[in-house]
Amino acid sequence: MSIESIGFVGGGRVARIMLEGWQRAGAMPARLVVSDPNGASLDALKSRFPSIDVCLGDNCAAAGEQLVFLGLHPPAFADSLPSLASSLRPDAIVVSLAPKVTIARLSSLLGGFDRIARVIPNAPSVMGSGFNPVAFGPALGDSERDGVLGLLSPLGASPVVEEMTLEAYAITAAMGPTYLWFQLYELRDLACSFGLSDEAATTAVEQMALGAVETMNSALAPAEVMDLVAVHPLADFEPAILEQYRARLGAVMERVRPA
């Protein structure tokens, strides 16, 4: 199935990431309509991606396309989705980009419409290096699934997973870069302050991070991996950092877990 026409209900951060990923890959859909109540957000998108159409406050216009991405925050679904049902084409595919709201709940809010998938997108999609797990509703056949996966492929990996795992992916993959980026930027800045050029510092941090993940995925046990470096300058802080991971991320998981 070839998907030529896309609507975004919500023109915020996730829409911008996906549009940027498609544009970088030379894979911008032929027709793309974005709706949002924020005129400044739409103006910024239109300026960056001139080929798209924007609709201020008109979600029904975006909902009339072949594939409809729901780029809304979960609390907004109950108020926004019922009004979209009459605008959906019978052969449309609706793809939610949010955690918490299940396919069954989405179908109910859309008046029984059931051609639905869910994706948990992540920020590196902007560079074509995303990890965007997908769960499909039972009403979508192989052709429709291939169409969705083909649309996502320029953004990075899109493994098909069980719906019940999506919230775990949201905490680990979608939010995961925020746990690391501030540390990697700080390491780069420190390397520069120690005398490396910006280019050398960037390369050192990049290769370190890539090598660390590759070593983590080796046959070595975790204890063996962490024993490969003799000096651990932050060892005294590791228990507190791990406790923050467990407490903070556990709390977030409870908030996004479907009711």
Detail the topology: elements first, then pairings.
Elements: E1 5-9, H1 13-25, E2 31-36, H2 39-48, E3 53-56, H3 59-62, E4 67-70, H4 77-80, E5 93-96, H5 103-109, E6 116-119, E7 130-131, E8 134-136, H6 142-152, E9 156-157, H7 166-174, H8 176-193, H9 198-216, H10 222-226, H11 238-256
Parallel strand pairs: 1-2, 1-4, 2-3, 4-5, 5-6, 7-9
Antiparallel strand pairs: 6-8
The CATH class assignment of the largest domain is Alpha Beta
* Tally of DSSP β-strands: 9
| CATH evolutionary superfamily of the largest domain | NAD(P)-binding Rossmann-like Domain
Would you tell me the structural class of the helices and strands?
alpha/beta
Count of folded domains: 2
Instruction: Please give the largest β-sheet.
Output: 7 strands, mixed
**CATH topology (fold) name of the largest domain:** Rossmann fold
Overall geometry comes to globular
Strand order of the largest sheet: 3-2-1-4-5-6-8
Short synopsis of the structure:
This protein has helices at residues 13-25, 39-48, 59-62, 77-80, 103-109, 142-152, 166-174, 176-193, 198-216, 222-226, 238-256, and strands at residues 5-9, 31-36, 53-56, 67-70, 93-96, 116-119, 130-131, 134-136, 156-157. Helix content is 46%, strand content 13%.
Notes on the structure:
Helix 8 packs across helix 9. Helices cover 46% and strands 13% of the residues. The protein is globular and about 65 Å long. Strand 5, helix 5 and strand 6 form a beta-alpha-beta unit. The chain starts with a strand and ends with a helix. With 259 residues, the protein is of the alpha/beta class. The strands form two sheets. The protein has a seven-stranded mixed sheet with strand order 3-2-1-4-5-6-8, with helices on both faces. A two-stranded parallel sheet has the order 7-9. The mean pLDDT is 96. It folds into two domains: 159 residues, NAD(P)-binding Rossmann-like Domain (Rossmann fold); 81 residues, ProC C-terminal domain-like fold (Orthogonal Bundle).
